[in-house]
Amino acid sequence: MAINIDTIYQRVLAIANKEQRGYITPQEFNLLANQAQLEVFEQYFYDNSQFNRVHGNSTEYSDMLDIIDQKLSIFQQNQQANITETNNPAYASTFGASLVTNGTFDSNITSWTAAGGSTGTQAHYSVGGVNAILLKNNDTNSNFSSSQAITTVVGKLYRVKADINAGLLNSSGSNAAAKAFITLAGSPSTSVIAGSSSSVVFYYTAAATSSSLVLNINAAGNTTDSALFDNIKVEEVTGRKLTIPLQSIYRLGAVMYTDSTGRFVEVNKVMPNELLYINSAPLTKPTESNPIYVLEGNAISIYPANLTSGQIAANYIRKPNKCNWAYNIINEKALFDSNKSINFELHISEEVTLVNKILELAGMTLQKKEIQEFGSGKDNKEVQQEKS
Predict the structure, then answer these.
(1) Are residues 50 and 69 in the same domain?
(2) What average pLDDT values come out for the chain (388 residues) when binned by 10 residues?
């Protein structure tokens, strides 16, 4: 049950205005109220740590750990739906053996098949000892592509990389939008426009056991239009990056994933400096039965890479919502608006604590030492009673 913000405001005003000590405006109250709410909320974690170090009791309604857990339960969340994949590699990811090697690419050019009935040409190309594929559009179609099927593992994240030289694509007239790019299972790289060259890199999560890697040129059919593709690689990534809505997360708890049998497996947190050693040793290398993660700002890097967002869930404590005493000005007076106001989210037992803390803060703001001392004294007495 939330604490009514108007109740707290009226109590604070009643005490602060005694003997005309000072008036706290709604704007000032809202600032002080949110500060007080966060102070009370943050103290839960320190109290929890402290009371964990002492013997509890079995008396109903008075075990301090149970009381703190009850207060925190308001903010406990389990998140799965909003956890998303970025299709980016995890922190300090490594890359496995290439599924498309330069050797296969250069020496076995016939393994690439022209797609869509195009009559363009592909050829092994060598200049200065550098091998590449020359993709040439010599028909009237607007594009030409060449493909090769590769074996992939469902759920695995792959890095796709290639050097593309589109310097021989015509960029004038109807060919102004000419470009070259690659796709894996329909997922495209960035395009290299006519007259330029670049290395392209993108990441793809395999959805099937066979994925088609396609080289593409998009031109108007001029027989001189061509592009070079070299150093093509498709490599498994050791980990993936997932984003979770950390804007509201105050403390991240357990991260779990659901395995193929429906069993929950906890994902162990490791520090970034530990990751190198864990990933390097065969006995500690993360697996589906022993996964790990590294926390990075609003994302987690999870290992191994075939754990997808649909399998991941996280327990966490969220921050309290910002409270607000809303009002309307009527006859030059601020009148409470319950429809627009946002109450405190703290447990109902924190009413007295909030009043004391707001008074303590208000005394500092108003430079009224007696108000500050009153609030501080009441707050300290309450703490002593709880921890004695």
Answers:
(1) yes
(2) 91 76 84 93 88 71 83 84 76 82 48 59 63 72 77 88 86 71 92 91 91 84 75 88 74 86 87 85 85 83 83 87 94 92 94 90 67 55 53
Shared-domain flag, residues 270 and 288: yes
Total domains, the chain:
3
pTM over 0.70: no
- Report residue 95 as tokens: 């890359």
What is the torsion angle, in degrees rounded to the nearest 10, for the CA atoms of residue 282, residue 288, residue 292 and residue 294? 110
227's tokens = 């592009």
Last residue of a domain, one of 237, 262, 285: 237
99 and 227 both lie in a single domain = yes
Question: Starting at the edge strand that comes first in sequence, how are the strands of the sheet with 240-243 ordered?
Answer: 76-79, 312-318, 249-258, 264-269, 292-296, 299-303, 240-243, 84-89
Separation of alpha carbons 198 and 163, rounded Å = 6
Contact 40, 346 (CB under 8 A): yes
